[in-house]
Automatic annotation (TrEMBL):
Pathway: Isoprenoid biosynthesis; isopentenyl diphosphate biosynthesis via DXP pathway; isopentenyl diphosphate from 1-deoxy-D-xylulose 5-phosphate: step 3/6. The active site is at 10, 136. This is 4-diphosphocytidyl-2-C-methyl-D-erythritol kinase. HAMAP family: IspE. InterPro entries: GHMP_kinase_C_dom (IPR013750), GHMP_kinase_C_sf (IPR036554), GHMP_kinase_N_dom (IPR006204), IspE (IPR004424), Ribosomal_Su5_D2-typ_SF (IPR020568), Ribsml_uS5_D2-typ_fold_subgr (IPR014721). SUPFAM superfamilies: GHMP Kinase, C-terminal domain, Ribosomal protein S5 domain 2-like. Pfam families: GHMP_kinases_C, GHMP_kinases_N. Keywords: ATP-binding, Isoprene biosynthesis, Kinase, Nucleotide-binding, Transferase. Residues 199-275 form the GHMP kinase C-terminal domain. It is an enzyme of class 2 (transferase). Belongs to the GHMP kinase family. IspE subfamily. The keyword tRNA-binding does not apply.
Length: 284
């Protein structure tokens, strides 16, 4: 038996850090949504008790460091599954980009193996398992649009934002999420974005207010460390994107565009700046 799952990329419409907790994690407040740029995960049952990962992407780990491997191992252990699985990751989401590619692969693996092995695990339990693998995994289990609190695992689903084009551009640098959070001085954040502002924009279906409400406190760290990310933001705005923000800890920058007529010009303008550019829709 074989199953397939789509593992879409996420973007943060806003990301705030409230404080650093005693357990070392940061208390966050984020609004996350998904875009139509996705990895495709194929899972095939194996008679032997083993987990095998393959991928056409040469630059991700294929052993127990891979989040899809960890998801499969977790579900096998918890549900005492004796069969093995061969997992192929057809990667489309750029790696270490701030788009939660690994987390989404892990979430898709949990969903897929639940079906493949007919385990009947309810979604909230899949999300609890996901939280053991990473802070973004519970959101990726369901996708949609949600407010995430705690370290990202406390989710409140909300209405989808107004549909638009999303131009994603990743400069050719790798940014470590742990490094960026480590360098953030949570008590000295200059400007906190507002959940209420983004929620109001979504409720009123006002694209202009949504663009105004975008905000990510991690920009304060990443933009100083990597000036090319700041330049990319400026470039996207100059080309005509209506709202521009860095996703997660970066380095990917996304631009929201309401009119299709502008998309090709922005896309082509950015291609002169970096290789990884995508023009996609929100996954609503
Ligand atoms: P986040 O926004 O959740 O921090 P990210 O988009 O910045 O994630 P990922 O693409 O998830 O970053 O990759 C982060 C690291 O995880 C990489 O260094 C990569 O080697 C490792 N990794 C493990 N499993 C995967 C996977 N299935 N796909 C991509 N990267 C993976």
């Amino acid at each position: 038996m074989k199953v397939f799952e789509k593992a879409p990329a996420k973007i943060n419409l806003m990301l705030d850090v409230l404080h650093k907790r005693e357990d070392g994690y940061h208390e966050v407040e984020m609004i996350m949504t998904m875009v139509d740029l996705a990895d495709r995960i194929e899972m095939q049952e194996l008679p032997r008790d083993t987990i095998i990962i393959s991928s056409q992407a040469g630059y991700i780990p294929l052993d127990e460091k891979n989040l899809a491997f960890q998801a499969a191992r977790l579900i096998k252990e918890r549900y005492d599954v004796k069969q093995g699985v061969y997992i192929h990751l057809d990667k489309k989401i750029p790696v270490a980009a701030g788009l939660a590619g690994g987390s989404s692969d892990a979430a898709a693996t949990l969903r897929g193996l639940n079906r493949l092995w007919q385990l009947g695990i309810p979604t909230p339990e899949l999300q609890r398992l996901g939280a053991e693998l990473g802070s973004d995994v519970p959101f990726c289990v369901t996708g949609g649009t949600a407010i995430a609190r705690g370290r990202g695992e406390k989710l409140e689903p909300i209405e989808a934002p107004p549909q638009c084009w999303v131009i994603l551009a990743k400069p050719p640098i790798n940014v470590s999420t742990a490094d960026i959070y480590g360098k953030l001085r949570a008590g000295h954040i200059q400007r906190h974005p507002s959940v209420a502002k983004v929620l109001e924009a979504i409720r009123l279906k006002r694209f202009d207010l949504l663009c105004d409400g975008l905000g990510n406190v991690l920009e304060e760290v990443t933009l100083d460390l990597y000036p090319e990310v700041r330049q990319l933001k400026e470039c996207m705005l100059r080309l005509g994107a209506e709202g521009v923000l860095m996703s997660g800890s970066g380095p990917t920058v996304f631009g929201l565009v309401s009119k299709e007529a502008k998309v090709a010009r922005i896309y082509n303008g950015l291609r002169g700046f970096c290789k990884d550019v995508y023009a996609v829709r929100l996954l609503t």
